[in-house]
Amino acid sequence: MSETTRGNAAATGQLVLLRHGQTVWSESGQHTGRTNIPLTAVGERQAVAAGARIRDTFPDGFAADCMFASPLRRAQQTAHLAGFAPAPLPSLAEWDYGRAEGRTRQTVAAMNGRDSWDVWRDGPQALSPAMEGDWVETLPGGEQVPVHNGPGETLNDVYERVQTAIDVAVPLMESGRDVLFVAHAHVLRILTTRWLDVDPHEARKLRLDTAHYSILSVYKGDRVIERWNC
Q: How distant, in Å, are the alpha carbons of 37, 61, 84 from that of 33?
């Protein structure tokens, strides 16, 4: 990045957050935490386009030791189709939705015997333990994927977990290098609230579309959002 683009944070690198491309569950509204589903054909094209947009902004790219991705398949596919070769970083895995995994918000509410349920407000632990178990989902293309409904993570669990990823990025950024994280909508939004040192519930206000990227940086000593949902 140029000195002008970085402004007063000229000596500090930037943290780029890229959400994975479209999956069948991102379209259906099924909670997709740890289930290892692939990108759709649309998602694959989105990933390629996202890589081109990022390279327009970061023409020098990222050093080999400055790229990281969730170990989950959809994030790994997105990274490679975008033209990057990241190392897996487990702390970038998506929120474990537990008893809500693979189910829409409406289905979860009906199964739990409540009028409404919201992952941000209530979390997986508010759901009945009777919803736990294992099952198999058949995707439109015929592929079968295992789904696990366990206790899941609280919002605060994820908020604490993402600090590990931030701790990986900060020394690299302080050495003047740009860092790339490829992961998922909720975990990247929660990571952003951790970066800003604000309540993780504020993450629900940060829309992040499939295969869109954002930039976190340091400006006049403060951690800030440089760009969002690009």
A: 10, 29, 23
